[in-house]
Specification:
With 362 residues, this protein is of the alpha/beta class. 44% of the residues lie in helices and 14% in strands. The two termini are 25 Å apart. The chain binds iron/sulfur cluster.
């Protein structure tokens, strides 16, 4: 199965099942599971597309509930990547509430990356991320985070902060909490939740101000050669100019492809709960007919390509405020990355930071 557009990343949802019942979660728990056939076709799509560096990101629900499938996926994709001479990274986005020796050994032996979803301090985390029986998951996650840092290099582990409107003023406290854990350099990602509660003016301002402070703190810590934190979005800008491309003009096939257990393909997970979800599904991996995207080819200055993402997302107006938060996230991250890059030309601590950050794109 071949496609004429560059695909650098695919997010593959392995199941809609989960052992947690996070109250903001946009995934409808419909007990869908991805078959190996759909997984294989998704991997073929990624690894047969133009471009050499590929990221296969395994999602859920909780993907570790599908550990047998993960083993098949890893074996198949590593073999195909080697045959096609592609540099493949595989990451698993997990709630990390259950891991056993077999899972740990497999992740380590296959150099998989893992991203762990957290909220932060126990009170906030347990309010939003509890098991199905209502018990908070904080204690278990923190125990397992410490365990996983013992067996994997820090550069293979990401902490994904759930960013919700009502927690936006507490972002600094929550990051500080994770930073205070006795684990090595952390790689932080923000997952800005769109489909839960409205982002009002105050929560947007809170996010913007908190993230500016986080950025200033990061620059100070690099300059003072203190133990520091990495931010996934900044790593991507330093390594692949990902924010610059996104804010300029880019093909949604490169980084936005998401595939669901049915094989349906879309450019955003949040839109699948909309009544008009059919408008957002662009095709299915089983037959790979991609509606209006079948034959187009990305040309930077082509008018059709310049308007492509706008046309796709304009059918949905309900996330306008969340999009503002994402825009501030991009702009502040971009400005921070540019300062780091500039200082990296003359200051060793920034140069070293860039080298390390580039290893952490997943
Ligand atoms: S029209 Fe859109 S999907 Fe097609 S190549 Fe251009 S940017 Fe990519």
């Amino acid at each position: 199965m071949k496609i004429n557009k560059k695909i650098s990343k695919i997010k593959l949802t392995l199941t809609t099942n989960c052992n947690l019942a996070c109250n903001y979660c946009f995934v409808k728990k419909t007990n869908e599971r991805t078959s190996f056939d759909v997984a294989k076709k998704s991997i073929d799509l990624l690894l047969n597309s133009p471009g050499n560096e590929k990221l296969l990101s395994l999602y859920g629900g909780e993907p570790l509930l599908m550990f047998s499938l993960i083993k098949q996926i890893v074996a198949y994709s590593q073999k195909l990547a080697s045959k096609n001479k592609k540099k493949l990274t595989i990451s698993i986005c997990t709630n990390l509430t259950f891991i056993n020796e077999e899972i740990k050994k497999f992740i380590k032996e296959n150099s998989l990356k893992i991203t762990i979803s957290v909220v932060g301090i126990a009170k906030d985390h347990n309010k939003f991320r509890s098991f199905i029986n209502g018990v908070g998951s904080h204690q278990k996650v923190i125990e397992n985070i410490k365990e996983i840092f013992k067996i994997l290099p820090a550069e293979n582990i990401g902490i994904s902060f759930v960013v919700l409107p009502e927690l936006s003023s507490r972002l600094l406290d929550n990051i500080q909490y994770i930073n205070n854990l006795e684990i090595s350099n952390k790689n932080i990602n923000f997952e800005i939740i769109q489909d839960y509660k409205e982002w009002d003016k105050n929560s947007i301002e809170n996010f913007k101000n908190s993230y500016k402070k986080i950025s200033q703190k990061l620059l100070r810590s690099i300059s003072q050669k203190k133990k520091t934190t990495y931010f996934n979005i900044i790593n991507w800008e330093l390594e692949k100019k990902a924010i610059s491309q996104k804010l300029g003009n880019s093909c949604p096939f490169e980084y936005l492809l998401e595939i669901y257990p049915s094989g349906d393909i879309a450019f955003s997970p949040f839109l699948l709960n909309k009544k008009n979800k059919k408008d957002f599904i662009i095709g299915n991996v089983k037959e790979l007919k991609l509606k209006r995207y079948n034959n187009c080819q990305y040309i930077k200055n082509d008018k059709k390509c310049q308007k492509c993402q706008q046309i796709y997302f304009q059918k949905n107006k309900s996330f306008d405020n969340a999009n503002k938060v994402k825009m501030y996230y991009d702009i502040i991250s971009l400005a921070t990355a540019r300062i780091i890059q500039e200082k990296g030309k003359s200051e060793k601590s920034f140069k070293n930071y860039i080298t390390e950050a580039k290893k952490r794109c997943f």
